[in-house]
Amino acid sequence: MEYKLQNMLLGFCLSLLLANLGSSVSDDGLVRMGLKKRKYDQAVRASDDRSSNGGHGVVLKNYLNVQYFGEIGIGTPPQTFNVVFHTGSSKFWVISANCFFSAVVCDTHAKYNSSWSSTYKENGTDAAIAYSVGAVSGFYSSDSVKVGDLVVKNQDFIEATREADGSGIFSKAKFDGILGLGFQETSPNSSVPVWYNMIEQGLVKEQVFSFWLNLKMDDPVGGEIVFGGVDPNHFKGKHSYVPLTRKGYWQFDMGDVLIGDKTTGHCSKGCSVTADSGADLFAGPTSVVAMINHEIGTDGVVSQECKAVVSQHGSTILDLLIATAQPEKVCSQIGLCAFDGTRGVSVGIRSVVVNESVGDSPGSCSACEMAVVWMQYQLKQNQTPEHILDYVNDLCEKMPNPPQLSYVDCNSISKMPSISFTIGGKAFQLSPKDYILREGSDPASRCFSGFTAYDVPPPGPLWTLGYIFMGRYHTVFDYGNLRVGFAEAV
Fold this sequence. Notes:
Cathepsin D, subunit A, domain 1, NK-Lysin, six-stranded mixed barrel, five-stranded mixed β-sheet, elongated, disordered N terminus
């Protein structure tokens, strides 16, 4: 299973929750979603003849800030489809005319019909893609693919004929398929990705593509992806570049995470992070997201195991942290972890756990590791032991619940701290107007955090920069130099 795509599907789940809400953006920059259903089809400027500084642009459409997609054509003459341009996968699929999905999917989305195209070439190899909440399957075909004003010849893609979608995500999605912009290494046995063929066929001048995402949902232009260059109108200043650490996903190292101007210390030795054009929220390890959401003032759920670990071992953990220079060994020293060295708090997190004994489950180890992270953060603030233990107990009461939104008091937004992420030695700041989203504009409306807990198993942990970050910072994916760059978006 392509685990990176789970992040994108978190966004799709969120879009389903908001699908019946209208939207507007207030002067303070907060996303506001009214109760009147928003008309989705908006007039957008033509993109076929648009070029940006030597590149070739495709205008994107924005649906509730949780789905960004653009129009492509497949076949001769082109049959048009709305697709998500997704950097977390290299696979490319659209719904087939031989669709055996539910009637809702087949009848409400564009479908590719090979008999209508003079450039179609039969392949027929079976294909399947598994996601965390569903799957699509079908067969490969080959045809010309029009992306903006570029035409990629003999491009293989999957005609999706079936789906297993217990959550209804694909049936309610506003797009007709996914065009992967990840590295072929993520799916070595799959077809050559579209981006690779653009380079091979000499269609782009530079081996880069760039994203500008417009978070203003009332704007008819939802953003733009430029192949072969960047549009200088979409950013200001210079991009800060960092090298990729893993050729497969657009993965690189991130430094310290700051809450306000205070370091958490969590990524001071480096954390892995990906820039994901298919994810909406900013996803990260439970331990740090819990701290961020606590400072924001979100609701959460109780972890009885976390509370039990802190009750029985909290003072000992704190004493060892004060006395030792090796915090990663604290949990093994007290017998809650069977090894030396943290696993990144990535497994065994369980919420609302009742009557579990401490020390005999992976969850106890993970709860201890979280407590270590939280205590280290408070020790850096020179807090007293009593305050630190109260703080850790409070976080055990408000653990993030990934499948659900973390709501906050809309009246407290002005008091919330900025959250910053250090990339390439530079702090990239998100203000409350960047990371808080709002449903409605009346006094009864609700606000929620843009940070969600997502624990990736080894080789995790792994952070994901989604639309919340990429909306604030224009992003360049430099394939030729294997690096990613960020600059303030305009």
